[in-house]
UniProtKB/TrEMBL annotation:
Record's protein name: Betaine-aldehyde dehydrogenase
Organism of derivation: Pseudoalteromonas caenipelagi
Pfam families in alphabetical order: Aldedh
Gene that this sequence comes from: betB
One Gene Ontology MF term: betaine-aldehyde dehydrogenase (NAD+) activity
Record bears the keyword NAD: yes
Enzyme class name: oxidoreductase
């Protein structure tokens, strides 16, 4: 399926919105540019979902819902599994889109982004036919419950894992019989269009997965629309609050996958090499643009010097920044120039507030990608809990290392934040590992591991990091509503 490939004066393709099984031109002609973060070049433009597109999207979603929700779960499952096969077949083509849109390394996108997206659709396709209601006798009467879809749902995505987020939202939504209007981030809008093409090719009826393009104003239209029953949002805490208050005006159900400032706690009996691997993965993978990152690394005083010395060596020796399409490169470019500046501002604040810079601390201009928005992997040590870099989400390759002495002390310090997305503990003492994790206020926790997020495991935040969950069995429930049906078996006993 060919998108509208009209080109602009910049000689780049222009992608349209994807409505009712095909690309649809808007009426205003408004479009926005998308840049490759590794080159600073405009690579394509995308038409904004104007009023004509918005009206068509809702009409189409209603038609799509009538067909899709009437199918049996096993029929829906069969179609979704075809989409999974197509995603896997096109892994490399889709991974390349993600690299060009996000700036992340090919070596990651090629084995993570598409596959973890496909896994989740496959998981929910498998679960859907197994969803059952309840039945209970009440005297001679009885009631039963039906798990019914919600209707039209909206998904709003962030830019760090664009295709994966589109899959994580569409998988459970569609498996449960809903339709989804998806708005990707305006920084990374292409992957969702490719997913829409794949769904159609697999046999998903037109209107079941529409893609509307644009920034905040298109998001606001979705969150306020009276015909939309639920919004699943991934993005910043501040935006999440706006989305939730807008959704409240029409009492929409919400799922909120928001930011974090997660702790990693390394006890003195830990496998230090593994703990360093986890700290590096949880700060430098995807150039630090991962919501669950362990940006506060608490290390026990007995192993602190050893930890930071090996961490410095490995960071300086093993990280290669450059053209993200080069398979050797393992540190890509940040999403945009303003974001690069924001990360640099945080680094400068760290220095001003007295953190000791162990390594990094500067923007990079690698030979193979001199115009990209790179920031060197940066480690601050001897940090204190009050520093801005320790308190606020930076969303870049910036790690803060802190020293601790005592288990209870570190638990309290780890919990001393309004965020609660993730946490990790490294220790060989299994009782301590569970005891500590059980006291940590976070929704996604790892023991002697960090960052793994299989489709089977529910993920989501405590406190301001989120509401609801993605993945895992419970997410399917969050895309259904329960209908109770009472069945009278006796003659009605009435005073009238
Ligand atoms: P963002 O909040 O700026 O934007 C997210 C999406 O919201 C975009 O599609 C944007 O166009 C849209 N949007 C902006 N204003 C809106 C409004 N008023 N109403 C409706 N939609 C609106 O976030 P971002 O910069 O794209 O992503 C980075 C953030 O996402 C980080 O904070 C990160 O932690 C978080 N994140 C969380 C998870 C998770 O699963 N918890 C996953 C990935 C990213």
């Amino acid at each position: 399926m060919e998108p509208n490939m009209t080109t602009t004066t910049q000689n780049v393709p222009v992608y349209q919105n994807f409505i009712h099984g095909q690309y649809m031109p808007n009426q205003t002609g408004d479009s926005f540019a998308v840049k490759n973060p590794a080159t600073d070049e405009v690579i394509y433009r995308v038409e904004v979902a104007d009023e004509a597109i918005q009206t068509a999207a809702i009409q189409s979603a209603k038609q799509g819902f009538a067909i899709w929700s009437a199918m049996t779960p096993i029929e829906r499952s069969r179609i979704l599994l075809k989409a999974v096969s197509l995603l896997r077949e096109r892994n490399d083509e889709l991974a390349q889109i993600e690299v060009l849109d996000t700036g992340k390394p090919w070596q990651e996108a090629q084995c993570v982004d598409v596959q973890t997206g496909a896994d989740v659709i496959e998981y929910f396709a498998g679960l859907a036919p197994a969803q059952v209601g309840q039945q209970q006798m009440v005297g001679n009467d009885f009631y039963y419950t039906r798990k019914e879809p919600l209707g039209i749902c909206a998904g709003i995505g962030a830019w760090n894992y664009p295709l994966q987020i589109a899959c994580w939202k569409s998988g459970p939504a569609l498996a449960a019989g809903n339709v989804l209007l998806f708005k990707p981030s305006e920084e990374t809008p292409l992957g969702a269009l490719k997913l829409a093409e794949i769904f159609i090719e697999a046999g998903v009826p037109a209107g079941v997965f529409n893609v509307v393009q644009g920034a905040a104003e298109v998001g606001q239209w979705l969150t306020g629309h009276p015909d939309i029953e639920k919004v699943s949002f991934t993005g910043e805490v501040g935006t999440g609050k706006k989305v939730m208050s807008s959704a409240a005006s029409t009492l929409k159900d919400v799922t909120m996958e928001l930011g974090g400032k997660s702790p990693l706690i390394v006890f003195d009996d830990a496998d230090i090499s593994d703990a360093i691997s986890a700290a590096m993965l949880g700060n430098f993978y995807t150039q630090g643009e991962i919501c669950t990152n362990c940006t506060r690394v608490y290390v026990h005083r007995n192993v602190y010097e050893q930890f930071i010395s090996e961490l410095k060596t490995r960071t300086e020796q093993n990280i290669i920044a450059g053209n993200p399409m080069n398979p050797e490169v393992n540190l890509g470019a940040l999403i945009s120039k303003p974001h690069q500046q924001l990360v640099m501002d945080y680094i400068n604040k760290g220095i001003t507030e007295g953190a000791r810079l162990l390594t990094g601390g500067k923007a990079l201009s690698p030979d193979s990608a001199p115009n990209g928005y790179f920031v060197a992997p940066t480690i601050f040590v001897d940090c204190s809990d009050e520093m801005t870099i320790v308190k606020e989400e930076i969303f870049g390759p910036v790690m803060s290392v802190l020293v601790f002495d005592d288990e209870q002390e570190v638990i309290e310090r780890a919990n001393n934040t309004h965020l609660g997305l993730a946490a990790g503990v490294f220790t060989k003492d299994i009782q301590r590992a569970h005891r500590v994790i059980h006291q940590i206020q976070a929704g996604i926790c790892w023991i002697n591991a960090y960052g793994n997020s299989p489709a089977e495991m529910p993920v989501g935040g405590y406190k301001h990091s989120g509401i609801g969950r993605e993945n895992g069995i419970e997410t399917l429930d969050q895309y259904t509503q329960t209908k109770s049906v009472y069945v009278g078996m006796n003659k009605i006993d009435s005073p009238f």
